[in-house]
Design a protein that fits this description.
With 444 residues, this protein is of the alpha+beta class. Helices cover 52% and strands 19% of the residues. It catalyses: ATP + protein L-histidine = ADP + protein N-phospho-L-histidine.
Length: 444
């Protein structure tokens, strides 16, 4: 720009000198200078007018051709215009590719703006949610009226949220999974997946496991009965006693596996409603501790610390299964002479039951998968201890049915701590006995 200014100034000086020379030739240099400068000024104003008219016309076509500094300005603007046009074409091509790729997806994608208002969606989302072109600008909750989804959308959580599963609007046979991600200025992206086939396959798997497990109970009972009879009589010769004992042990192990599979299948069945009975926590922990001491056979020290008298509203059998699985696992994976600490306490977040052992510990890489069915950190050791690989999966489903969570802390070769967390609304205070009742209890 500085070079252009110098060039234009040189041009101005040459025009002025030319006018002065012509003026001396004509005999009046001042009039010639004024006339020349006026023509130069009119030329500049005319070029500016052409430039403004070209800008007002949307800068269509090439810039006006001229000379001097305005010619250079025209050329610069035209080059910038061409570069912007190429970038705009690239952007449009990229947007078309993105739109074509999202249109080809089987998952539905919905873009929301101004909170929950529909801005754009792909054909899959329109088919799954029943959206039409005229629905743009309306709130998504007007089309997905499930109360769980309404509260899910109106929650204050930001970023990626856990997926929500619900029936499709207007078609109860379809099961949808919706995942909402908040971003930008009150904008959101909703991913909609049809998981009906997965639900059906999962239901088939559950039914198969439950039916097979149920059918296995009768032959296992018959086999176990005959084995016990043979071992308790003199019919079997001495060389057969050891094989019979091993057969009885494996039959018992298989029966335990079948029972765990049946329990897990029952817990996974959505139609199975949870009980609402107040379960005395201190009594439950005491019973589990006695079972652990019996199972340990004196090889471990089981300590109990119950800081508050509380009750958990739920299913007594399921809660006992969850507590017992954690404690028996601690016994199985703790070396002889180790201490197992059972603790119950309450705070503002709810009630907590922890099982701390001094066992072999767990590598952090295995912790996220511990609640999977049949997942074993050390397969050989698990089989030797008689585990089925379903204990923590049962604990997980019991907690889901009781609105609870589980946290795991472990260090290899130092031990592990498994903690069950129950929300405050699932807890009730243990009633204080009346003086009359206390006197009757003392007399008994």
């Amino acid at each position: 720009m500085f070079d252009r200014s110098i060039g234009e100034f040189s041009r101005f000086v040459l025009i002025a000198l030319g006018c002065i020379i012509l003026g001396f030739i004509w005999g009046n240099w001042s009039i010639a200078l004024i006339a020349g400068l006026a023509v130069y000024l009119v030329s500049l104003l005319w070029q500016q007018h052409r430039f403004n008219r070209w800008l007002a016309g949307g800068r269509r076509g090439p810039s006006p051709s001229t000379f001097g500094i305005w010619g250079e300005i025209y050329d610069d603007f035209y080059r910038i215009q061409r570069r912007h046009r190429r970038e705009r074409q690239k952007l449009h091509a990229m947007l078309r590719r993105v739109q074509d790729s999202t249109n080809a997806l089987r998952e539905g994608i919905v873009a929301l703006e101004n909170g929950d208002n529909l801005a754009w969606w792909n054909p899959a989302a329109g088919e799954l949610l029943g959206l039409q072109a005229s629905d743009t600008g309306q709130s998504l909750v007007n089309f997905v009226r499930d109360p769980g989804f309404v509260s899910y959308m109106h929650s204050d959580a930001s970023g990626v949220r856990e997926p929500l599963t619900l029936p499709a609007p207007g078609n109860e046979a379809l099961l949808l999974q919706l995942e909402v991600t908040r971003y930008g200025q009150n904008e959101a992206l909703v991913i909609v997946r049809d998981i009906t086939r997965l639900r059906n396959l999962e239901q088939m798997r559950r039914d198969f496991v439950a039916n097979v497990s149920h059918e296995l109970r009768t032959p296992l009972t018959v086999i176990t009965g005959y084995l016990e009879t043979l071992q308790g009589s003199d019919v079997a010769p001495p060389p057969w006693q050891r094989p019979l004992a091993q057969m009885e042990e494996q039959a018992a192990r298989m029966a335990a596996l079948v029972n765990d599979l049946l329990l897990l299948a029952r817990l996974e069945t959505s139609e199975c409603k949870i009980g609402d009975v107040p379960v005395d926590v201190s009594e439950l922990i005491g019973r589990v501790a006695r079972e652990a001491r019996s199972f340990s056979g004196g090889r471990h020290k089981v300590l109990v610390q119950c800081e508050t008298d509380s009750r958990i509203r739920g299913d007594a059998g399921e809660l006992h299964s969850a507590f017992a699985n954690l404690v028996l696992n601690a016994v199985k994976y703790s070396p002889a002479g180790g201490t197992i600490q059972l603790r119950w306490w309450q705070d503002r977040r709810g009630g907590h039951f922890s099982v701390q052992d001094q066992g072999i510990g767990i590598d952090p890489v295995h912790i996220p998968r511990l609640t999977e069915r049949f997942y074993r950190v050390d397969p050989g050791r698990s089989r030797g201890s008689g585990g089925t690989g379903l204990g923590l999966a049962i604990v997980k489903h019991v907690l889901l049915r009781h609105c609870g969570e589980m946290s795991i802390e472990s260090t290899p070769a130092q031990g592990s701590t498994f903690t069950l967390h129950f929300p405050e609304h699932k807890l009730t205070a243990k009633p204080v006995p009346t003086p009359k009742a206390s006197e009757e209890m003392a007399n008994t």
